[in-house]
Specification:
By secondary structure, this protein is of the alpha/beta class. The protein folds into 2 domains: 179 residues, Glycogen Phosphorylase B (Rossmann fold), CATH 3.40.50; 154 residues, 3-Layer(aba) Sandwich (Rossmann fold). Helices cover 40% and strands 13% of the residues. A 6-stranded parallel β-sheet has the order 2-1-3-4-7-8, with helices on both faces. The protein has a 6-stranded parallel β-sheet with strand order 11-10-9-12-13-14, sandwiched between helices. A two-stranded antiparallel ribbon has the order 5-6. The chain starts with a strand and ends in a 5-residue tail after the last helix.
Length: 408
């Protein structure tokens, strides 16, 4: 039996990268692999037989005192403790291949050094831009930002890209300077899986070796399809409520087009968005956090999903999940989103941040017949099944592992 080592900062779900960490692992277990885990200790973690190898919990928002903050800041660059835990795991278990999801700011690339030392084939999925952009998103409070291109990482401090804090941004600038200037990641991973072609192009543009990058779309376990077939009348956004998601643009467009909208989720700008909707008199209902069947019921009853992002999205899971439920998407033409939508056939695209363009598309979909909207939703599901099925994902991943010398 082959053993896959899955590595991630969190052993519980906080975002899309964590979903992929678990989905990847479960898929390989389904195909008869044994899966070992290395992550970080946390009260919300799922149970694991490998938690004795987990790195100590680091919470940068917790007030742990000056000394602990200094120690944690050094761990961002290189965590001796995380490498020691990885070494113990590799001493006790035979690993055939390692797959890394997110280790930034927690285990750090130190765990990659240990894998490299042991000659273990290592693949990393780039869920964001962290390996080339210190602030993850190529975005700051002024919008899209690519000033750090060419390893000019000091810009993250100059422009306070992290939490608008000079101190935090300076620490992150130092971290990225060490990691990029000494190629901590590119030297210690064999392949980098990238969920969108846009991200592949951007990594190459910023100097990453093209031969190391492989495009593999994200995978999901398709949610069960509802018996409901007729599209509803409202448009839905679900996900985190944060500035880069473009939700304010959606609210303004909803008000301008006179369509009903619902927003499911929570986040740091929730109160601001509620105030904006009230100010504009928009027909917007805020539903709070929803999950599971409760969320799917809301998705099934909508007319279409709106994905109004104003940053370089990679392969947004919310869009894929909605398509699997035969719901079409109105998506901003930015990042990897256009790769998920064939305009007018599986969904609709609009210019990011353009209220008028989105309002026009909302009105177009609202005025279309239910039959036409349902047809586009079904076409979206077919396309998603071809692109994001577990079978296709497993075949692509095992092909990568096989090319690295793993006998499968």
């Amino acid at each position: 039996m082959k053993t896959l080592l899955s590595i991630n900062a969190h052993h519980h779900i906080r975002g899309g990268s964590d979903v992929m960490y678990f989905e990847h692992s479960r898929l390989f277990e389904k195909h008869g692999w044994h899966v070992a885990y290395q992550a970080m200790h946390h009260d919300e973690n799922l149970k694991s037989d490998y938690d004795r190898y987990f790195a100590d919990d680091i919470d940068y928002k917790r007030d742990d005192g000056l000394y602990r903050k200094i120690v944690n800041s050094l761990k961002i660059i290189y965590s001796v403790e995380a490498r020691r835990k990885m070494s113990a795991l590799l001493d006790d278990h035979k690993i055939d291949v390692a797959h890394v999801h997110v280790v930034f700011h927690h285990q750090s690339p130190s765990v990659l050094f240990e894998l490299k030392k042991r000659g273990i084939p290592t693949v990393l999925t780039a869920h964001d831009f962290k390996m080339i952009c210190p602030a993850f998103q190529m975005r700051n409070r002024d919008g899209i930002c690519e000033r750090c291109k060419g390893k000019r990482v000091w810009n993250v401090a100059i422009h306070r890209c992290m939490m608008d804090s000079l101190l935090i941004s300076s620490v992150i600038a130092l971290e990225s300077a060490v990691h990029q200037w000494f190629d901590f990641y590119s030297r210690n991973v064999d392949r980098v899986v990238v969920p969108s072609r846009f991200y592949v192009e951007k990594f190459v543009e910023w100097g990453w070796p093209k031969e190391q990058l492989i495009y593999v779309p994200n995978v999901i376990n398709a949610p069960p399809v509802s018996a409901k077939s007729a599209p509803g009348d409202y448009f839905l956004y679900f996900g985190r409520l944060s500035p880069e998601k473009g939700i304010a643009t959606f609210i303004r467009a909803a008000a301008r087009s006179g369509i009903p909208a619902k927003i499911a989720g929570t986040g740091p700008i929730e109160a601001d968005l509620m105030a904006l909707a009230t100010e504009l008199g928009a027909d917007v209902e805020f539903l709070g956090f929803r999950s599971g069947q409760d969320l799917w019921d809301i998705v099934d009853a909508c007319r279409a999903i709106v994905l109004p992002s104003e940053w370089y999205e990679n392969g947004p899971m919310s869009a894929i999940e909605a398509n699997f439920r035969s719901k079409p998407i109105l998506g901003a033409s930015i990042g990897g989103i256009p790769e998920l939508i064939e305009h007018g056939k599986t969904g609709w695209l609009f210019r990011p941040g353009d209220v008028d363009d989105l309002a026009e598309k909302l009105r177009l979909v609202a005025d279309s017949s239910d039959a036409d909207v349902a047809d586009i939703g079904r076409a979206a599901r077919i396309a998603a099944e071809e692109r994001h099925s577990p079978e296709a994902y497993y075949d692509r991943m095992t092909s990568i592992y096989r090319d690295l010398g793993v006998a499968i």
